[in-house]
Amino acid sequence: MYTEIYLIRHGETMFNQLNKVQGWADSPLTVKGINDLRVTASNLSQIHFDRMYSSDLKRAIDTVHLIKDYNMVSQIGKIKKLPAFREVFFGGFEGDDIYETWRQVSIAGGMKPETNVCKIIDTLGIKEFRNATKKADERHLAENAKELDDRIMRAVHQIKEESDGLNRVLLVTHGDFIKSLGIKYWTQYSGKGDIEFPTNGSMTRGIFNQSGKFEIVDYNINNSDLINI
């Protein structure tokens, strides 16, 4: 027996729409975000979940409740909030223009100014990108590679304990956090370079296998493919 963990990225938010840095800072779901989530929720409505969870940020909480309301085959009580599954923290960059933020990060990483985050990560590598983000943050509060990795391991340990003996749970979390999980645990990741950023409302499926090891087996599955999972 293994336990399935359905990791859902929250719906589009105002900060997503405005291209602002959004980690622990929060902003409301947009109308588009809510409408897109209704499609996701409909596609998940016939899948039985033993429990549902979310991070403790409002955009994730609003998303999980919408999915819960659409589900027709699960008996879900109180939804527990798991702070360990918050988005990556960007410190003093929270709420700033995303392209100006990446420009500063690239300079801190020893590059020429660059606003394309994929190019920065491909050049520096994901660990040095995290470290450069902390270096570029004037307050040095942004999570570096080790801080984020430590939190990821705590988060995975927590959801393992929460889901012990269950068949399937749903957890609403965040794009950069899901991507970080993918880099660490996705069975198809080559171990080099970056991977695509999860879209709003997408599903990434992880499992705890028979030996208790966590692995991601499906990554960034969107609504066109979700019904076939």
From TrEMBL:
Q: What is its EC number?
A: 5.4.2.-
Q: Which sites are catalytic? A: H10, E87
Named from the GO MF annotations, one term is: fructose-2,6-bisphosphate 2-phosphatase activity
**Binding of substrate: at which residues?**
R9, H10, G11, E12, T13, M14, F15, N16, R59
Keywords assigned by UniProt, alphabetized: Hydrolase, Isomerase
Under Pfam families, the record lists: His_Phos_1
Q: Name one GO biological process term.
A: regulation of pentose-phosphate shunt
Matching CDD domains: HP_PGM_like
May I have one GO cellular component term? cytosol
**Matches recorded under PANTHER family:** FRUCTOSE-2,6-BISPHOSPHATASE TIGAR
Task: Quote the protein name from its UniProt record.
Answer: Phosphoglycerate mutase family protein
Lineage of origin = Bacteria, Bacillati, Bacillota, Bacilli, Lactobacillales
Give the encoding gene's name: gpm2
